[in-house]
Structure formats: structure tokens, C-alpha cells
Amino acid sequence: MTTSGTFAVADRAALSGTERIDWVDYAKGICIIMVVMMHSVLGVELAAGQTGYMHLLVAFAKPFRMPDFFLISGLFLARVIDRDWRTYLDRKVVHFLYFYVLWVTIQFGFKAPGFAAEHGWAYVANLYLISYIEPFGTLWFIYMLPVFFIVTKLARRVPPLLIWGIAAALEMAHIATGWTMIDEFCARFVYFYSGYLFATQVFALSDRARAKPVMALVGLAAWALVNAALVYDGCSEWPVISLMLGFAGAVAIIVMGTLLAKMQWLGFIRFFGEHSIVIYLAFFLPMATSRALLLKFSPFDIGTISLLVTLCGVIGALVIWRLALMVRANFLFERPAAFWIAPKKKSATLQAAE
């Protein structure tokens, strides 16, 4: 498989190599922008008590924003799923748990004084401990990934289509227990497992989009119209429709990423995708800071403030990353050797392990 996404072999087990795939990074870049946008827009609107024009875009992206992220997260699993348990757990469980523990602690460090002023320090301590059972704030994505990795490896001897059918049924059931781990597992596992199960088809889809860009653009236009109609009509979260829109949107983002990679346009989106987990971990601080400042001092409308907060969240996270590297605080984005339970591989950065 070359870096343009073309298959050199048909076997899924051959999904290997150290080079990045250009369209995958573009797709992840689109996804991380949408994630930051959602948190930024809803946070601004909640604080302001009104909505702006960005709310329409957030609503449009809701059916596919996280499905595509999870599908891509499972895309390269075939090349590592048969590793011994020690190595597998190190790469796919301990790795993400390290960053969850670190960054949930950092987030609490910023938010604890406010919590304590309102509820007391006992409440803060209790909430911190609960965050290891109920994922805290924006970090639920990396909390869920190890769960998905473990379940998929445990189930690899079970007929794949049976697993996929159960996962699809769970998504359509729209289970709501109030426990994030259960609810998000039911809602998202089908997409993660599909990335693992249908990786060959996903790359073939990208190849077709690259070979026939005009047809791909026509398909994107049709998808956008259907997605918008169902979202704004209020039926996008109905059983079956939610599943169809999740996959349709994931396909659309893959096609968008492929076309952008083919034309080599908007390279900053690819850069965002290359550092998507870095942005995911750190965007909360510049997002919250810029939201408070802009709502207090900016003359702009709510929609524009939401857009500016989104930009601050993405760019600010990358600034934090660069500053961390400059002051040798690499542990914020790279797992130290002390937290490896298997032999450390070369270039063991967060992105390499991602």
C-alpha cells in the first residue's frame, strides 16, 4: 500500500508500514475540526444563552462526526490484532490510558478551584475518582478506544458478520443508560469494528474516488443534500436512519479526504489530522479561555464568536504542543519509557502509536 492509499496487496494483514496515508490524515483533520467545533459552538451558545449560525453546521455534522473518527481508528487494526497480549495491551490500552489519566488530571487542575468554590473540595475529590468510571468531559473518546481494542481482539474468533450485526443492532437501539461507557459503546462500536472488518473496501473506495473525482463530487453533493434534509427535518436520529447516515457520512469524509489529497489542497487540514490526538487532548484550555474573553470583550455575533473559539481551540492546542516540546515537557504528548509494559518501539510518539 503506497502513501496515496493504493493497495499493493489485497490481504488486510498487509496494512502495515511506517509511512502515513495522505487521505487518512485529511479525513482525520476534518473530523478533529468538527469535534472542536462542536464543543466550541455548544459551549459558547450555552454561556450566551442563544444560538448562532454555526449551530446549523454542528447539527449537520452530528450524524457522522464521531462515526468517521471511530471507523478510521479501527482501519489499521488488522496489522496488530494478532500480536501477543502484552504488546497489544501496551500499544492499544496502556498507551491511551496513560494520556487519559494525565490529561484528566490536568483538566481537573484547571477546573478544581471552580468546582470547589461551588461544591467543596470533597466533591472535587469524589468527581475526580468517578472520572475513571464515568469519562470526564471531552476525553471520553480516548477512554473508549481501549475498550474497543480489547473487545475486538477478544471477539476475533467469533464470526465477524455476527459481531457486526450485533453492533449494528446496538447502534439502532439508541441505548441511554446515563453511563457514557455503555451508551457510547453501543452507539459507536459498529463504526470502529467496520473500520477493522472492511478496511480493504475502505481503501478501494478511496482509490475509486481518486480515479473518478467528478463522480465523487456528484456523490458528495447528493449526500450533503440528503444528510441536511434528514437532519433539519428532525429524523436523523431515528433507528436505521442514524446508522445509514453514520456510514454515509463516514464515506463522505473519506471521499473528501481523498479528493483533497489528490489535489494537495488545504494542507493545514492534513497537518491537523497528523496531530489530531494532540489537538484532542489540549484544545479544552484555549477553547475555554478564548470563549470567556470573546464573550466578554468581543463585539461580534454569537456565530462569529463560535467560529473564532473553534480556531483558537485548534491552533491553541498545537501551540501548547510546540511549547511543551520546547521546554522538554514531552511527557504531555509522548508516553515515557517508564509507562511501557512491552519493549518500546522506535519513534514511540503519540502519533506513531495512534
Present the secondary structure layout:
Blueprint: H1 22-48, H2 54-61, H3 65-73, H4 85-119, H5 121-130, H6 140-154, H7 160-173, H8 180-197, H9 199-211, H10 213-232, H11 241-263, H12 267-274, H13 276-282, H14 284-297, H15 302-326, H16 350-353
Helix pairs in contact: 1-2, 1-3, 1-11, 1-12, 1-13, 1-14, 1-15, 3-8, 3-11, 4-5, 4-6, 6-8, 7-8, 9-10, 9-11, 10-11, 13-15, 14-15
Describe the structure in your own words.
The chain is built from 16 helices and no strands. By secondary structure, it is mainly alpha-helical. The radius of gyration is 20 Å and the shape is globular. Mean pLDDT is 91; it is low at 1-18 and 347-353.
The helix/strand class is: mainly alpha
As residue ranges, the low-confidence spans are 1-18, 347-353
Morphology call? globular
Strand content: under 5%
State the helicity in percent bands.
Answer: over 70%
User: Average pLDDT, to the nearest integer?
Assistant: 91
Radius of gyration (CA) equals: 20 Å
Q: Write the H/E string, N to C.
A: HHHHHHHHHHHHHHHH
Please outline the major beta sheet: none
Beta strand count? 0
**Count of DSSP-assigned helices:** 16
Q: What is the terminal-to-terminal distance?
A: 18 Å
